[in-house]
Each structure stands twice: as C-alpha cells, then as structure tokens.
C-alpha cells in the first residue's frame, strides 16, 4: 500500500493535521500566531545547517526552530515588544537560511520544496518521522492538557493551582518545534503557520468545549489534507498550497454558515 505515492502523501498530510490540531488550538487561544510563524521561518536556517553538516533535515530544523522559540520566550518582556522581536528574528533567520543555502556547493537543493512543501515526494522514512513526531506532540498535549488550559486561562490561577506557567509554555514551545520540523515536507516553512491556525480558527465557532475544538480542528485539518491532495492531483496544482486553500475555504464556509445562523436567530 505504501508503494503508492498518493497513499504516502495522504498519510503524511493526515499525520501533520492531527499533530497541528491540538497545538493550533493553543496557538489561537494564546494569540501566538506570529510566534508560530516566526518559529517556522527559522526552520529554513535549520535546513541549510543540516545540509551543510550532512545531518537529518528533521533534527536540524527542529533544533533551530526550538532555539528560535526559546530565544523569543527568554527575550520577551525585557524591553522588546513581542511583535517587533518576532519580526526581527523571523525574517533574519529566514534571510540567513536562504543565504546559507546559496553557499552550499555540490548539493542539489530544491528550495521551493522547503518553502512550500513537497508532500508528493514523502518516503516511508519520512512517514515514520512525521507520525513519530505527531505521536510525541499529541502525547505531550494530552499529558499536560489540564495544566495547559489552566495556564492559558490565567497565569495567576495556574500559580494558585500549584502549576508553573513557564513550564507549560516550554512544553508548547517544544511541541511547536516538533510540528514545524515534521511539517516542512508537507506544506513547507511558509505555510506551516496556516496549517496550525486555520483549522483551529475554523473549529472555534463550532465547539462548546476545548476538547471539542481540538477534535473538530483535527477533522478539518484531515479533510483539508485529503481534499487538497486530491485537488492538486486532478488540477495539477501545488500540493501544499492546495491543502491550505481547502482549509481556508472551509474556514470561510463554516464562518458564513455560523453568521447566517446567528442572523436568522
């Protein structure tokens, strides 16, 4: 079954969607959209370093994404506005990564594949990495679900409950770095944030509990991956952007239905 490239691509898309769904909910709740985007942009520098050092793309991208996220977390609140800090670090890391790639001689690089994804080229090894990373992220989120929700609701409430909000932020940071690393092959660094945010945002108006929102976001992400891939195959369009387009259409459609329902009521 895994000999078929479309089957591998579909499994890869579903794996990333399931990993991104619960994490995307926290990104939306905490208004960390730009934080996720900055972490994803930094991953291209990790790709360049991985190719230069002849190491795993996954390991390099995750390491740099994690360093970026930790750097932002440490510098936040020390005289820097968060949006300014994220803008400087995100675009600097992306620029340095692109420049570093240009210096790599003797290595054939399809830069567009890293920027916008190349899900149709996913191998069996990539599937193991993607689903392994997705399993780690889902396990982390499930393990700390209540603590993460409490910290998201109020840091004071978290401290009163004996929790450490900074530790929960670290767990989210590590999870985000893993998702960025595994999603590079699927949607590329420029579209990872979209896959994190759009399904969660679309699910927000349909859910009445945090758990329901995470589940619905996972379903929307999965549908986006499957339908987007089929659309890319039929219409010969880029697979990664096609997946994001389907997610955006679902977001618009669900919000329109919700708006009309509220207007009718």
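-> sequence recovered:
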């Amino acid at each position: 079954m895994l000999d078929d490239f479309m089957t591998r691509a579909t499994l890869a898309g579903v794996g990333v969607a399931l990993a991104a769904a619960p994490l995307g909910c926290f990104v939306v709740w905490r208004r960390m959209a730009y934080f996720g985007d900055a972490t994803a942009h930094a991953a291209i520098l990790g790709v360049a370093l991985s190719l230069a050092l002849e190491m795993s793309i996954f390991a390099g991208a995750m390491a740099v994404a994690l360093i970026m996220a930790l750097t932002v977390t440490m510098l936040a609140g020390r005289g820097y506005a968060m949006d300014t800090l994220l803008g400087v670090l995100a675009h600097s890391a992306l620029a340095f990564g692109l420049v570093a790639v240009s210096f790599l001689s003797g290595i054939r690089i399809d830069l567009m594949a890293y920027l916008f994804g190349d899900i149709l080229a996913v191998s069996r090894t990539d599937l193991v990495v993607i689903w392994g990373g997705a399993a780690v992220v889902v396990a982390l989120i499930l393990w700390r679900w209540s603590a993460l929700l409490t910290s998201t609701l109020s840091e004071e409430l978290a401290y009163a409950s004996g929790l450490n909000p900074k530790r929960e932020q670290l767990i989210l940071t590590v999870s985000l770095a893993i998702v960025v690393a595994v999603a590079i092959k699927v949607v590329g660094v420029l579209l990872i944030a979209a896959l994190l945010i759009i399904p969660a945002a679309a699910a927000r108006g349909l859910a009445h509990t945090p758990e329901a929102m995470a589940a619905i976001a996972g379903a929307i992400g999965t549908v986006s991956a499957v339908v987007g891939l089929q659309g890319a195959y039929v219409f010969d369009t880029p697979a990664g952007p096609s997946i994001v387009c389907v997610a955006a259409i679902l977001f618009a459609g669900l919000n329109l239905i919700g708006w009309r329902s509220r207007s009718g009521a």
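Residues 210-235 form the longest helix (26 residues).
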